[in-house]
Every structure is written in structure tokens, then in C-alpha cells.
Amino acid sequence: MNKIIHLFIFMFLIVFTAIPMTAGAATINEQFNVSDGVSYKDIRYSEDSIMQAVRVMEIDISNPDTYVDIGVPTALNRLQTTTAFANFYSQENRAVVGAINGSFFHLGTSMNLVSKDNRLVHAGEVYDGEEDKFVNKPIAFGIGENGKGIIDNYQLEMKYIHNNKSYSITSTNKARSPNNTILYTSYFPGETTKTNQWGTEVVVTLPSPPSLKFGTTVTGKVESIRQSGDETETVIPKNGFVISAHGTGSEQMSDIKVGDSISLSIDIDSKWQDSSFMLASGPMLVKDGSVSVTMNQDSANAKYRAPRTAVAIDRTGEKVFFVTVDGRQSGYSNGMTIKQFADYLVNLGAYRALNLDGGGSTTMVTRFPGTDRLSVANSPSDGYERSVSTILMALSTAPLEIFRDVASSHWAYPSTTKLFRTGTINGYPGGYFEPNGLISRTETAIMLTRELNLDTSQVTDPGFKDVKPTDKYYKEIAAAANAGLFKGREEDMFVKAGELTRGEMAVLIQRAYHIENTSNSYFPDVKTSHFAYEAINALAYQGIAEGMPDGTFRPENSITRAEFSELLFKVNY
After folding, report:
1. 479: DSSP letter
2. What is the pLDDT of residues 373-415, one digit of tens each?
3. Fewer CB within 10 Å: C terminus or N terminus of the chain?
């Protein structure tokens, strides 16, 4: 019955869930709810004999247990795979359930603006006016002060103030280029600025490290100045910063002296104030429900078919979409041009969408049913998961449902979840546990062997006529029998597919955990002559086993997979 219900639900979703329309037929290869508020789809289609494989993760951030956040490295140039990033940020009660790759990067460092908790992490750069570049306008995705998704332009203002005059800062923690003024902080990957001698560097100290919080100004004292032409390396203070300037910027520093006060101001336009995070990228793909590509669509970067990654929001900002399309894999997925990707996102229902790093970086990870671990969902074009500079994550504070058919409200959810995480149970393909299914004697032997950590490397033949050394689970059955748990059911037969009875269950649990007998007798249908009489009453005395509502125990009834899991859980945890 459960399988029929699952099939009906699956067919209902296929018929009534919107799939982006294309010139070819689109099919859902796989779909499931990752967590409460997060869903995943693997969509396949062909257009003019060109195959495409698209993954879509839909995140409802109006759900109180569901969030979107950014993953940033602990050091500016410390690349990690999307999976490693996500696992690093995942916590017991705030689990990462899905993620995609984020920023473009160069030499290990994010190329564009990143902020977190209303603080600037990295200013990055924008190739203003160079429309063949992906990021030629200051556009970012983030979560605003109201908790809703934003994809929009931003205006970052960074300046230092000396003698009541303000001077612009070009960027942060990157190689200084001609006529640039760069701010170096302790987040820079190195103790010194690593610049050449053709610029002026001013070292400023503060009472504490600068937070770079938007809308704030901090004031420090000039500790030292390295003049242009000096080849001495400038050390970046932990409690302070270095302003490094070349050309015009260097000339602006000519009247700064050791001991002077210098203020540092970091600000962002009002729509981004108090945002949870910002991730700049480009180009914009969709604006106000229509294709709106902010780069030259005839440029080489836009015209070739490639793997692509994007983030999108709906009109309300309450739904966020992580989208990837694989590419460079003929016969499986060829990839899309920028225009094709934008068209696809409009058909998906995106109100706004922003392109992220693609190519070999394109990665989506998720938590598939039947596991609590993240794994790669798409097929990266490099043949392996590339390390990246940032990621976007879907997080959930709700109880994570390991099996599709054991909801967090199910009475056996705590026991099955715990036993899954200890490796005692695995479930069936497709992420099902079948809690109401009757447990076989073989399955029982496997679970007990795993839970008791029995040695399966040097088992001896248990002597059962129906158990052969070539059987898949021979070692588990033998280990359980060697430990004195199973004695065989009839005529030296183990009866591998035989259903475990409640009476047998009680005997196995008593043997496995050496539970002492009691003189008490609890159930009228369990006579003193019954083989499981002592075991049943021992378990009842310890509060491990319970009877039926009518006061009986029914020892000859079969036991379900959920019931046996619950018993193991009670005994062990």
C-alpha cells in the first residue's frame, strides 16, 4: 500500500509540477524534498538533438526552518570543493542540505564583492564598460534585512579620510595595479602586502582589528610610511590596515605623516544595509521576469555552450532557486549559451537571475534520500569536483528526514535516524525504509551484527543447512550465530527469509544484551511453557518491550522493521 501511495504522489508531481518548456520534451529524471522548504529536481531534455541536464533546487525562505547563506573561506585564497565548504558549515541543528558554487575566482581569490553579516569580506572588482566580461556591472545576490532574496545593483563606497579630505579606495586585499589604491587587512593571505616598490604604503593601527562593517567609520594612527622606491616589505598589522597606492593615489598621500589620524569608511547603498550577505557576480540574466543580459551576447564568453550556474528569485523574494546545467559532455549535456540559460530561467519562473561562475566550477550538491551526507548531484565537466572560492547554501533547522517514508512526526523517527547514523540500518534503494514491512531473520542478524560490532572477519560455519559461505550475508549470519544469538529454527535450518516473531525478538534481545530474568509475569497469552516466556517478561520488566492495547503480547506475531529498530534504540540509547 505504501508503495502505491508513493507512486501516486510521484505521478501527481510529475503531471502538476511546472517544468520549463523547451523545444524538446522535458522529463524529470528525479525529484524529492530535501528538507522542509527545500526541493530538488533533475530535469533532462533535448532540443534539436542537443541534450541538456539541468538541476534545480527550490528554496522557500519564508519557511521558518529554511535559510540561504554564503560560504566563505577562512583565508582569502583557501579554495575548497563545494562539498567540503558545505560540510564545514553544516551543524547538528542547522544543517546544509544543498549548495552550489559561487564566485568567479583568480589565483585562488574571489574576483568580486563578498560580504557577510553586513560586513565587507572582499571588495573584488568590476570590469566597468567591458561588456565582453561577465562582471561588467556591480550586481549582487543576497538576503536583505527583511529576510528576502535580492538581485540588484549595489554601490560600494570605500574611502580614507585625512585632514578632513576624503580619498577613494579601489579595492581590498588584491594585487595593486597602476593608479590603484588598495586596502590590505589581516584577511589578506600573507603577512605583507607583497607589492612592488613603486607606490606609497601607509600603515595604520587601531585598538582592534577593523570589522569593515557597512555604514561605519574607524579612526587609527599612522604607525609608519613606506615611500615609493623603498623595497622594504610592508607588514600588515593584525589590529589595523595598510593603504597602498600607486600613481595618483600615491600623490594624494604626500602630506601624510607618522602619528597622523586616518579614518576608514566603508558603506553600501541602503537596500543592502544590514543584509545577511552579498555575493557579486554577473551578468544579470533575468530582470523583472524578462531576459535582461548585462553583457555582450555576441562575445565569446556568452556565445559558447558551457556548463552554467545561476541563482534566481521569484517576484516576492521568498523563493530562491539554485540552477545548474551541465555541459561539454556530448550525448549527456552540451551546456547552454548565456542567452539560452537566461531563456531557460525565465521559463522556470525566475523574476530575477544572476549568472555565477560556470565551466568546470559548475557544481550542485544535495542530500539524497536514504543518506544524511551531501554528495554531488550534477556531473562536473572536469570529471571531478573543482575547488572554488565561495558557495551558496540552503540550510535547514528542521529535523532531517533520512527516509522518505519515515517523517519526523513518525513514532520511529528517532530510532531509525539514530540507527542509520550509527550504521546499523541502511534502508532500501530510493531512500525508503519500509517501517511497516516485516523484518526477516537475515535482516535481524545484519542489524545485530552491526549494532553489537561483531567480528565478521574470522567466523566459523554456523551449521545451518540453508546458509552457504557464498551467500551475500553469510558472515553476518555466522557472526550472530557464533555469538550465541541464533540457534536455528527447525531441523538445523536458519530460515533466512523467515519473518521474525515477537517472541524470537525477545529472546534475541535478551541474549544480545544479557538481560536478567524476572519472577514477574506480565502477559496472559505468554504461558510458562513458551520458549520466550523468560525473555518476554525480562524485557517487559526493563521497560524495553510493551504489550498490545488489550494487555496481551502475541508472541507468534511477526515484528516490523520499525518495531525492531525501536527496541534496539531503547536498549542502546
Report:
1. H
2. 999 999 999 999 999 999 999 999 999 999 999 999 999 999 9
3. N
Task: Decide: helix, strand or coil at residue 443.
Answer: helix
Task: Tell whether the model's pLDDT for residue 23 goes beyond 90.
Answer: no
Question: Where does 269-318 show beta strands of DSSP type E?
Answer: 277-281, 284-287, 290-291, 308-313
Backbone angles phi, psi at 224, to 5 degrees: -160, 160
User: 77: how many CB neighbours lie within 10 A of its CB?
Assistant: 16
Within 8 A by CB and 6+ apart from 305, the residues are 50, 327, 328, 334, 335, 336, 337, 340
Instruction: Return phi, psi of residue 201, to 5°.
Output: -130, 130
HEC profile for 135-187?
CCCCEEEEECCCCCEEEEECCEEEEEEECCEEEECCEECCCCCCCCEEEECCC
According to DSSP, the β-strands at 181-184 and 240-245 are antiparallel
| Cα R_g (the chain), whole angstroms | 31
Query: For the purposes of burial, counting CB atoms within 10 Å of the CB of 205, is it exposed (0-12), middle (13-18) or buried (19 or more)?
Result: middle
CA distances from 371 to 243, 295, 411, 419 (A): 49, 41, 19, 12
Strands 181-184 and 171-172: parallel
The alpha carbon of 119 is separated from its chain's Cα centroid by a whole number of angstroms, namely: 23
